[in-house]
Amino acid sequence: MTNQTTTKPLFETFSMDKLQLPNRTVMAPMTRGFSPGNVPNEDVAAYYRRRAENEVGLIITEGTGINHPASVSGAGIPVFHGEKALEGWADVVEQVHEAGGKIAPQLWHVGMTRKKGDLPNEEAEPVGPSGLSLDGEKVNEAPSTEEVEALVEAYAQAAKDAKRLGFDAIEIHGAHGYLIDQFFWENTNKRTDRYGGDLVERTQFAVEIVEACRREVGEDFPIIFRFSQWKMNDFQAKLATTPDELERFLQPLIDVGVDIFHCSTRRYWEPEFEGSDLNLAGWTKKLSGKPVISVGSVGLDGVFTDFSGAGTSSLDGLVEKLDRDEFDLVAIGRSLLMDPAWVKKVHEGRVNDLLAFNKEALKKLY
Ligand SMILES: Cc1cc2nc3c(=O)[nH]c(=O)nc-3n(C[C@H](O)[C@H](O)[C@H](O)COP(=O)(O)O)c2cc1C
């Protein structure tokens, strides 16, 4: 396992005009379901605080629902609207800041992955670009153009509240087959208005969301955008099959001022396209010139979509890529679920003390 000297690049500062971090580590957004009544409580605040106390550079919260009746599925998933939930989030921010950390909420709408009857709003119909499930089956009617515009504004309101509550950035969840990604993907977006069309035209929903969030937070506030090629029902899916397509996909998002791209992959070491070692984050950095976050099985020997557990693994390959500037920041998911002190232990070279990820980590807020 890696020793202290070789992890040095992970502990260099990160600095861009809008965001400074003490090191290159990011807590990946992870849905936990421990927010009773959709309100993050003091246990949730203490959970994030523990990561801040243990040197995580930037915490990205679990996905939290924008103000729309079908934005989340589940009673314990935190939302990002209403007095109580926003008070809960204000406490989370305070705890993390007191411990010297930085934090961004991940703004989320689950789209068509929601089943009618799911809590908290059992009557709410799922909403997606064309009323299609991820497998392309018709579920309900497509929303009107005006209804899509209202969804854009719900993201903007959340961004405004995030800034007001003192968050350090926002992350827009455009990955994994949820609402925004359903607009990106041709399987789920058959719209004929301005939100549908070819790959570039299918970015319009995300583009308007970024624009509307920017309007609310101003120029100096960082907007992180998370996207993925893979979808929860299809790990091999590709929005972009070539670097050229990836560039065409990214350009509209660059043009409206995304500050950092969070490129979600399940294994950070996998090359994205043939003929180069670069992973999705590496390509995104090369093509966009923007800072990027890489992610996927950092420090682990098993992939996250198999929830059974994973052993620890060497960080050498990761650190080499970071040192080569393939990416700027590294998000850590499951390793931080089980072990709030994972980053600090790596920093101090206490690699034998790292706790491997196991299923128990999902049952409680360690
Ligand atoms: C329990 C759990 C919940 C997750 N919830 C989210 C989420 O809310 N939003 C998101 O973008 N990704 C989510 N993910 C994916 C993680 O952010 C991350 O990309 C993935 O776990 C790969 O990183 P890892 O291999 O270090 O765990 C979740 C992953 C896990 C394990």
Automatic annotation (TrEMBL):
Chain positions covered by the region annotation Disordered: 117-138
InterPro entries the record matches: Aldolase_TIM (IPR013785), OxRdtase_FMN_N (IPR001155), Oye-like (IPR045247)
Gene3D superfamilies with a match to the protein in the record: Aldolase class I
Record-linked SUPFAM superfamilies: FMN-linked oxidoreductases
GO-annotated molecular function: FMN binding; oxidoreductase activity
Domain annotation NADH:flavin oxidoreductase/NADH oxidase N-terminal: ranges: 10-351
GO cellular component term of the entry, any: cytosol
Identification of the protein by name: 2,4-dienoyl-CoA reductase
Gene source species: Salimicrobium halophilum
The organism's taxonomic lineage, starting at the top: Bacteria, Bacillati, Bacillota, Bacilli, Bacillales
